[in-house]
Amino acid sequence: MPSSLAAGIDAIELDRVRKTYKRHPERFLTRVFTELEIAYCRGRVHELAVRFAAKEAMMKALGTGVRGIGWREIEILPDRRGKPLVYLHGKAKKRAELLQMGPPEVSMTHSDTMALAFVVASVDTKIDLDEEKSILIERLVRRGLL
Fold first, then answer.
1. CA 35 to each of CA 31, 44, 77, 131: distance values in angstroms, whole numbers, following the listed order
2. What is the pTM assigned to this prediction?
3. pLDDT tens, residue by residue, 40-89
4. CA 86 → CA 29, 34, 60, 73, distances in Å?
5. Domains of the chain, residue spans
6. Which of 3, 18, 22 has the alpha carbon at shortest distance from 112?
7. Of 39 and 130, which is predicted with more confidence?
8. Closest Cα to residue 72, out of 95, 86, 89?
9. Is 46 tagged catalytic?
């Protein structure tokens, strides 16, 4: 039985995505999105932005942030009714397996100016809060911050 949940949330301004897409359309699309995502989004900035936010939220749920996992290793595609589904590939899939993560669920929304995504998944790993706090304290001491 899963012992906890992994969650991630991200928000991004549509103007930021719009500007990047206008400046470097091919590079932006091929670095961040899979072929299926590109085909589905058809250049619609709100669809690209909300998927960008979902990918970043998934990276946070995996505990990696944007380090160590490629954007295209997380794929957000709709089912036949439009519900977004998360597909993990490569290092993202391996990280999820390491965490014994169940299938992630994603919720996405956007307004005229912002895109927001939230990801949650069950994990069968236990976090020792005291150990994590001790590691943080050691790191802060090494950096001269404590």
1. 11, 15, 11, 42
2. 0.88
3. 999 999 999 999 999 999 999 999 877 889 999 999 999 999 999 999 99
4. 18, 12, 14, 10
5. 4-142
6. 18
7. 39
8. 89
9. no
**DSSP structure class, residue 95:** H
For residue 2, what pLDDT is reported? 45
Annotated catalytic residue within 22, 93, 110, 133:
110
Active-site residue flag, 83: no
d(CA 14, CA 46): 7
Class for domain 4-142, per CATH?
alpha beta
CA 12/CA 113 separation, integer angstroms = 9
> 77 vs 80, 102, 108, CA distance in Å?
10, 18, 12
Whole-number Å distance between alpha carbons of 74 and 115:
17
Q: Which of 60, 89, 93, 133 is catalytic?
A: 60
Rg of the chain over Cα atoms, rounded to whole angstroms, equals: 17
Res 91 pLDDT > 80:
yes
At 27 the three-state DSSP class reads helix
